[in-house]
Amino acid sequence: MSSAEFWDLTWEEYYARQDRHEEQEKRWDLRFGVVASMYINCKLKEGSEPVKPGAFFGHEEDTEPDREMTPEETIAAAMKAFQIKQ
Q1: How confident is the model at residue 84 (pLDDT cuts 50, 70, 90)?
Q2: CA-CA distance, 26 to 18, in Å (whole number)?
Q3: pLDDT of 83
Q4: Residues 6+ positions from 36 with CB-CB distance below 8 Å
Q5: Which residue has the higher pLDDT, 31 or 66?
Q6: Is 58 left (phi over 0), alpha (psi -120 to 50) or beta?
Q7: Exposed, middle or buried by CB within 10 Å (0-12, 13-18, 19+), for 69?
Q8: What global pTM score does this model have?
Q9: Among residues 74, 29, 71, 72, which one has the least CA distance to residue 53?
Q10: Are 40 and 51 contacting, i.e. CB atoms less than 8 angstroms apart?
Q11: 36 membership: H or E segment, kind and range
Q12: Residue-by-residue DSSP string for 48-83
């Protein structure tokens, strides 16, 4: 895509291309993750939780749904993040 074509994109066109690119990258990550997870899973002890292909690239399924934090939870999380460990 030329620079002129890029700058002529609308926001919707740009974000559609960005989403398509991110999905393509995720598919490539998962393809590689299958190989790595197969190797690791064959080395695990029987009964162990198997490693999923997305675990290597942060594509794991969320275990808890997103929710909005209360103001108190937000302050508590910020304070915890700013704690200095000695």
Answers
A1: low
A2: 12
A3: 77
A4: 51, 53, 56
A5: 31
A6: left
A7: exposed
A8: 0.54
A9: 29
A10: yes
A11: helix 11-43
A12: PPPPPGGGGTT-PPPSS---PPPHHHHHHHHHHHTP
CA–chain centroid gap for 36, Å, is: 17
CA distance 70 to 46: 42
Residue 38, token pair as written in the block = 């197969």
Report which of 77, 38, 72 is spatially closest to residue 55, judged by C-alpha positions.
38
How far apart (Å, rounded) are the C-alpha atoms in residues 13 and 11? 5
Q: How far apart are CA 37 and CA 55, in angstroms?
A: 8
Tens-digit pLDDT profile for residues 24-43:
998 998 899 899 999 999 98
Tokens of 32: 């590689």
Separation in Å, CA 75 to CA 42, 67, 71, 78: 44, 16, 6, 5
The helix or strand, by DSSP H or E, that contains position 4, with its residue range, turns out to be helix 3-7
**Token pair recorded at residue 74:** 């937000």
